[in-house]
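ok so dumb question maybe but i'm new to this and my supervisor (M.) told me to 'just get the structure for TRAF3-interacting protein 1' and walked off. so i did the thing. is this what she meant?? sequence i used:
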Amino acid sequence: TNHLRTLIQHLCRSTHPLGKTLDYIQEDVDSMNKELESWRKECARLRKLEEDANFSTAGGGDGEEGGDVGRMSRQVRSIEGQIEVQVERIAELKAGIIQNDATIQRLVRNVTHPVK
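this is what came out, is it supposed to look like this??
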């Protein structure tokens, strides 16, 4: 019986910390669930702020572009149109230069090698 009592005491001393740990685990799980819920609320709040910011910079969603993004978009389109006009002018000038160069070469050839 003495031996059995010693074994039971040893078993109780070994399992007591395990029981306490299991109690703490449940408390930790509850605490983690509360923290998770608070982070989810924070995430939802920040998403809402982001949507509101995007809504206001995109012009308020009235179908027409407004705000900073709309204004910049219109400026970009205007500049792109100006670039296109300048590219066409450059192409026309290059074509004129090529034609003038061909005319000059023909005239120089006629002066240096006259047709008899």
